Amino acid sequence: MMLAALSPLVTAGIVLCAVPILAGVAQPYVIWLKMEILRATNHLTRWRDRAQYRYKDAGTFAWMFAWYKMRLDPMFDDLPQLLKLAPTPRVAIDLGCGFGVAANVLLEWFPEMQVTGLDPNPFRVKRANASFAARGTALVAAAPDFEVPGLPDQVDTIFCLDMIHYLSAADLATTLTRLRNRLTPGGFLFLRSPVPPPADATPWRRWRGSNVPHPRSVEQIAEIVTASGFKLIESRPTTGNPALQWFIATA
Q1: Could you give the number of structural domains in the chain?
Q2: Position with higher pLDDT, 102 vs 57
Q3: Is residue 4 part of a domain?
Q4: Are residues 85 and 186 in the same domain?
Q5: What is the pLDDT of residue 133?
Q6: Buried b (16+ CB within 10 A) or exposed e, 150-168
Q7: Predicted confidence (pLDDT) at residue 24 exceeds the cutoff of 80
Q8: Residue 193 in contact with residue 165, Cβ under 8 Å?
Q9: Would you call 210 helix, strand, or coil by DSSP?
Q10: What is the mean pLDDT of residues 86-111?
Q11: CB burial string 184-206: b at 16+ within 10 A, e below
């Protein structure tokens, strides 16, 4: 009745605005239903589906964040190749874990792995804990003072993904040194960080690069990593995004 009383142009405008909003609201439940059907029929065979299902009790926002992260971040294309450089991870730290998306993917790739995630945001930590279930724990902690009760004394793998640009030079050096001291001999550090984008980067990437709190070049990061007691064995740009650089180092 109300729509009939409006002009066709106004009615069309309301419909055009309402459809994407309703679709956005419905999407989490559609994906949830798909996951339930796959679980009930024992068809959670793809690692993305299994990692996604870990968020069934973590809330809608974390569920959707994980869904998009696993599909849009080329990290998950790069990591399988990078991880071949190291022994199979069994006890890992994920510093700056956020909602635990990368950690949950790793848990699906490595069924024997246990993870401890660290993040300063209690909201994210709560959701990460719900997703890890019996395979790990998430703790509220912020670098460089991340050494809180419950953190393993020794681990064989450490992940620092897209977080060191929030740390000052002194805090980064302290953080890496403390991480190095918890890494077993022969253990590995996988670090990804924003770096200055190339001159031919898109305006969006140049803008993002100009808004990094503590920008550092590839050479500067490599120097800090080695000065903290690590041996740098690989450095390469992220697939499709040269403004994100990988650093792989060993104890």
Answers
A1: 2
A2: 102
A3: no
A4: yes
A5: 94
A6: eeeeebbbbbbbbbbeebe
A7: no
A8: yes
A9: coil
A10: 97
A11: eeebbbbbbbbbbbeeebeeebb
Q: How far apart are the first and last CA of the chain?
A: 71
For the chain, the maximum distance between any two Cα atoms, rounded to a whole number of angstroms, is 75
Q: Has residue 113 been placed in a domain?
A: no
Q: What is the 3-state secondary structure (H, E, C) of 234-245?
A: EEEEECCEEEEE
37 and 92: one domain? Answer: no
For residue 176, the domain's CATH number is 3.40.50.150
Measured between alpha carbons, how far is 67 from 14 in angstroms, rounded to an integer? 29
Of all residues in the chain, the percent with pLDDT exceeding 90 is 72
Q: Within this chain, do residues 61 and 80 fall inside the same structural domain, yes or no? A: no
**Is the domain of 26 the same as that of 88?**
no
Q: Which helix (H) or strand (E) covers residue 2, if one does?
A: helix 2-5
Q: If you average pLDDT over residues 106-124, what whole number do you get?
A: 97
Q: Are 238 and 244 in contact (CB under 8 A)?
A: yes
85 and 18 within one domain = no
